Amino acid sequence: MFCQTNFSFLQGASRPEELVRQADFLSYTALAITDECSLAGVVRAHTLIKNQQLDLQLIVGSLMRFETLEVVLLCPDKAAYSELCRVITNARRRSEKGHYQLAEWDLLSLRHCLLIWLPQGCEQDAHWGAWLMRHHQGRSWVGIQRHLVNQEQRFIAHCEALAARYQLPVTACGGVLMHHSERLRLQHTLTAIRLNQPIEQVKGELLVNAERALRSRDKLSKLFKAPWLAESLRIARRCTFDLDSLRYQYPAELVPEGKTAMQHLRALVQAGQQRRFPQGVPADIAQIIDKELALIEELDYPYFFLTIHDLVCFARSKGILYQGRGSAANSVVCYCLEITAVDPCQVSVLFERFISKERNEPPDIDVDFEHERREEVIQYIYHKYGRKRAALAATVISYRFKSALRDVGKALGIETTQLDYFIRNVNRRDRGQNWQTQLAELGLQSESHKGQQLITLVEEIMGFPRHLSQHVGGFVISAGPLHDLVPVENAAMAERTVIQWDKDDLESLRLLKVDVLALGMLSAIRKTFALIARHTSRQLDLAELTRMGDDPQVYKMLQRADTVGVFQIESRAQMSMLPRLKPSCYYDLVIQIAIVRPGPIQGDMVHPFLKRRNGEEAITYPSEEVKSVLSRTMGVPIFQEQVIKLAMVAAGFSGGEADQLRRAMASWKKSGELMQFKEKLINGMQQRGYEVSFAERIFEQICGFGEYGFPESHSASFAVLAYASAWLKYYYPAMFYTALLNSLPMGFYSASQLIQDARRHQIEVLPVCVNASEYDHHICQQHDKFAIRLGLRLVKGLQRHSAEQLLAARPDTGFSDMSALQRLGLPANTLESLASANALKTLQGDRYAARWALMDKEHTLPLFAGHSVAEPASCVFQPDDMDDLVEDYAALGLTLGQHPVTLLDKAGKLGRFTRMAQLSACRHKSLVTVVGIVTGKQAPGTAGGVTFFTLEDDTGNINVVVWAGTARAQKQAYLSAKLLEVKGIVEKEGEVIHVIAGRLIDRSEILGTLHSKSRDFH
Length: 1018
Prior knowledge:
alpha/beta; TIM Barrel; Arc Repressor Mutant, subunit A; seven-stranded mixed β-sheet; 23 strands; 44% helix; DNA replication; DNA-directed DNA polymerase; EC 2.7.7.7
């Protein structure tokens, strides 16, 4: 049976796993997964068969169409597999993303693949029959399908005649598009989506019955002649290729001639030791280095480390800041290779996390590069290894609620305006009211036939792949042509190619990838270093900051939750945790970053940890084995590695079982596979003397970590950047804020919020000025202090090339008048944008006068060149503060004038309310009214339907907690308000202050046309 999965996008109506399970249930001997010009679905089928030890043979293949030829290519061996990958790659690379273009040469070049020809019942069948007999004799079959359609017997007779004429054997074929007949409606819907027409208009293109589902062997024996079925078994016996036989080899050119890879790696580590430890390597660290190098040699991973080292050397040579992370990245070897700035003297290096020999895990190293310069590293890889040997891993873009509702709704003929209304008003974060119920409240007639179809089909299609996209930076680099290993195709972005497998597929086959990722904070830190060097002559880098040790003043700032702009600990949830956890050293910061995650929160680990840390609860361990795993975190599992290790030391999991547990944790909400480990885990702990309650609690914690567990190795690397950004904010705030502003978009806060925080730290911020601003924001001296001058990049509607043209022509003394600016020949809309941003204030008063002056074109006429022209009549309109405020937000997205809350309060439009700065004086549980601009909404999946609002008034940010019931009852204000008034109750826990919302009042109408933006549901 050859099958197309849902990786034959908008054709196949079942997942690879569903097809495999159904084939096993029906007692099939073999199943061929043959997506069209693709191998994207085969790994998932292979993984399920392997993990569940199913007695089902997987045949790897692909369906191809060329002119009037339709053929299924199957892989009997590794040579055929490489051949098929090459053909798919060629066909995909010739065409734009999502399409393919076969050439006859591709098919002629096949020497190992088996070909099942699917005749089309047209005149050209005779040509292709002769062609197959001439070029592929002995490896070709005529495939006959039985789908019980009109005139099928006549078509079968035609196929049999072709087989006899060209001496080709006949085999039975399924042409399967779904694992079960119940998926027929979904397959019809997918067809309509693919054709971009409602189902009613494409009836002629739809399947007429459900015969393209997997059918019982009994039914097949009645439909197909016995010799045809027997031939399909003979084909299956010839197909012995197994995906596990694939072997990955790293490129060897990184090793100097005359040296082995291991010798070269040892030499690089030796040289790095002298740089990292100029006073000499401590004895314990030297011992760890020896152990790590021995393990790298034993497991044959030197090329992996050399490949990563080569990339960071390139980045360093170009001045690109980077930081490695991952279990292997936090090794002393990687510290010596300068892959990471995590000082092993500062954090205890757990050897078993480096490369888990016991679990047979490959090394894990991700390298984050500056987000603005990561492309340079990517192009270096392509240039060094070529397109044939390097490509990005794929990311499967799947249907989520909004895309599913829109596409299914259109296929069912529902008006686009109605679908947009549904999407805009459904609150997916309301745990107490599912989207189906909300659609009914919004006007969907859920009891009608179409309403029921919509709900059912949206539920079925969610999670289905829509298309393959490029991974954010996971590279596969091979010693030979990559298309021998996996098909390669074009990405949507120019100069990018991707393989057809995603990171999970690569991991399933134990194929290594190099992660080249982008991180905005690295751009900001590097720019901060550059500004410090320029204005103070002090040279800094990440490694130096970590070697300086923990600075008490920096940690005091963190304990106050003064972390706007600080990496990883700037969110509302992190700010609430900081005064409670009170980090005072680097490892505290490692825990701080990891603990405010869904894993520890869902596993109910946060409160026990805080109680133990504060001395309110005793630290106990049920055994020395458990203590060895949890002593670093006071007996509470915080990190993903800990819960996996617990399964091994406390429940007796083998290395392989622990690895399966880790994979199940990563996808358990999608697949539910984690539940199969519950009995083994609990029984294993009981047998080793642990109480049932402890075992069940550990399993619940493991479930909490499912999909969300944060590894200690990643947290340790992130903590370096969190500390570095906090240190820079404390000691060089003007440079830090300037660098952040020049690195946007990134992080958690907008330019407006960053500037307001800078001003709260007594940093003067100067406005955009056509005579004083550069394109980027820059540092200047103002009253013997560092100040920030806003850059032209902030002006909406101003193109960079126009800004650069203006700056190149600007005299050293600046433009003297409007006419000098007008004579530059800049587009009229560029000058108008500058005027609206009040950037021409030094030339023409306010923005209104500047716009009025721009209407006078006499200055630009040749007749008046070199002559003074009378000033135009001045603009009679005199703006007030609110006019300027609205204009500032429209032109710049921020204001340096009075805050909207200040102006509205002065105008008497807000009534009585309490400002953020006054909340600390309020009694716990007292009633309060607060007002502010909505700058953020967070609805974590672990918060039980709670949403955390951030309201900004003229004294700071207010944290508002909105319960699910409150949000549901006041949905309009909850979803839409820009200016929100909240009547609620103050709750205080130490220095943490929240307002628990009772009533939400949308006051947006009094803002007029103010263009404020909220960062919602991130």
